[in-house]
């Protein structure tokens, strides 16, 4: 039997870009939030006798997804087997339901789901530090999916810290047909920011970090630890948005991506209608999202996007407890922990 895992998606509630680092990556501060929308990753694994070579097979229903060592799920399983010091025959099937390269972290989530499926199939579990280290080697967005919920990302996004829970709310994700190249977006950002000093660039990271801390972690902020009230009113997300006043809680990529693709800015304006609490580009795009107080408002946003000819995905944000309780859909073997 096999283990089937829901491979959830994410949005970036805020993303600040800092100076380029010596390793070529940019310093980032971001607040991730997982969503209920997901792919399905099915893993079947069987230990092999000592001396045998591990064998991996990866299949998918989407021909755009690589089925070899370029795939993040393949990389994750290969590294995990090496870390565990075991040989196994592993088959992975990825049923794509999320857009490929859409800014929702789908490929990164597939890698985390493959690891969870592998651990359950083999009846072992990597030590937590090793899991996060391997995840960071595979991709900057992968570690967040080993936490779930609201997650602070630092470094290049791979240094992750769980944040106080944000109650679930309606989310509409706009899925434009236009593609956005992340490397090209970074290059354009660097060109635009050439006149800034490294210190000034670092200030962006500090401002977003301070807004997140004030909105989510300050016990005296209004409503921060209360999930009561209608819709988003009185919950931590509202406090975060009010604290940032939508000036610090933003995605820096919008400055360059909206110039390159003006239609994406129009989509954001559409999402902001009908009672939207907050809308932004996710990652470097091209997906954008809006968070809504009511289901009726979310439905209106979907209707307006349809009028623009833009596909959309209706979902909800996923708190950490629900992220883990609903992840494993089908288990075909025992599971134990090996520290």
First-residue to last-residue Cα separation: 25 Å
Number of helices: 10
Q: What fraction strand? A: 25-35%
Major sheet, described briefly?
7 strands, mixed
Low-confidence stretches: 220-233, 333-339
Helix content estimate:
25-40%
CATH topology of the largest domain: Ribosomal Protein S5, domain 2
Overall pLDDT score: 86
**Derived structural class:** alpha+beta
Q: Can you lay out the helices and strands and say which pair or pack?
A:
Elements: E1 3-20, E2 26-47, E3 55-60, H1 72-84, E4 88-95, H2 106-122, H3 128-138, E5 150-154, E6 159-162, E7 170-175, H4 182-192, H5 198-217, H6 236-244, H7 254-260, H8 262-272, E8 276-281, E9 288-292, H9 295-308, E10 311-316, H10 320-325, E11 328-330
Parallel strand pairs: 3-4
Antiparallel strand pairs: 1-2, 1-11, 2-4, 2-5, 5-6, 7-9, 7-10, 8-9
Function: Catalyzes the phosphorylation of the position 2 hydroxy group of 4-diphosphocytidyl-2C-methyl-D-erythritol.
Domain GHMP kinase C-terminal: 248-309
InterPro entries: GHMP_kinase_C_dom, GHMP_kinase_C_sf, GHMP_kinase_N_dom, IspE, Ribosomal_Su5_D2-typ_SF, Ribsml_uS5_D2-typ_fold_subgr
Short description:
This protein has helices at 72-84, 106-122, 128-138, 182-192, 198-217, 236-244, 254-260, 262-272, 295-308, 320-325, and strands at 3-20, 26-47, 55-60, 88-95, 150-154, 159-162, 170-175, 276-281, 288-292, 311-316, 328-330. With 339 residues, the chain is an alpha+beta fold. The radius of gyration is 20 Å and the shape is globular.
């Amino acid at each position: 039997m096999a283990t089937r895992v829901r491979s959830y998606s994410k949005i970036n509630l805020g993303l600040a870009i800092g100076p380029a680092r010596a390793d070529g990556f940019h310093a980032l501060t971001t607040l991730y939030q997982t969503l209920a929308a997901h792919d399905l990753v099915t893993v079947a694994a069987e230990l092999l006798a000592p001396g045998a070579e591990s064998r991996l097979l990866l299949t998918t229903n989407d021909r755009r997804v690589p089925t070899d060592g370029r795939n993040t799920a393949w990389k994750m399983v290969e590294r995990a087997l090496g870390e565990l010091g075991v040989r196994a025959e592993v088959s992975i099937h990825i049923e794509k339901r999320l857009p490929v390269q859409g800014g929702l972290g789908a490929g990164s989530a597939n890698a985390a789901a493959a690891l969870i499926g592998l651990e359950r199939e083999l009846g072992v579990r990597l030590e937590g530090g090793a899991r996060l280290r391997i995840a960071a080697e595979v991709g900057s967005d992968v570690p967040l999916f080993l936490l779930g919920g609201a997650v602070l990302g630092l470094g290049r996004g791979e240094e992750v810290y769980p944040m106080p829970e944000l109650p679930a709310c309606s989310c509409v994700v706009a899925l434009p047909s236009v593609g956005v190249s992340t490397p090209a977006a970074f290059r354009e950002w660097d060109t635009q920011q050439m006149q800034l000093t490294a210190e000034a660039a670092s200030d962006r990271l500090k401002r977003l970090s301070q807004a997140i801390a004030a909105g989510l972690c300050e016990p005296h902020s209004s409503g921060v630890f209360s999930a009561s009230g209608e819709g988003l009113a009185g919950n931590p997300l509202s406090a975060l948005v009010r604290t940032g006043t939508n000036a610090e809680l933003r995605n820096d990529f919008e400055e360059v991506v909206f110039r390159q693709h003006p239609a994406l800015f129009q989509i954001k304006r559409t999402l902001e209608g009908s009672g939207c609490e907050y809308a932004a580009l996710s990652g470097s795009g091209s997906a954008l999202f809006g968070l809504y107080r009511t289901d009726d408002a979310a439905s209106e946003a979907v209707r307006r996007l349809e009028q623009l000819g833009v596909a959309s995905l209706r979902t909800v944000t996923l708190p950490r407890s629900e992220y883990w309780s609903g992840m494993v859909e089908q288990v075909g073997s025992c599971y134990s922990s090996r520290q």
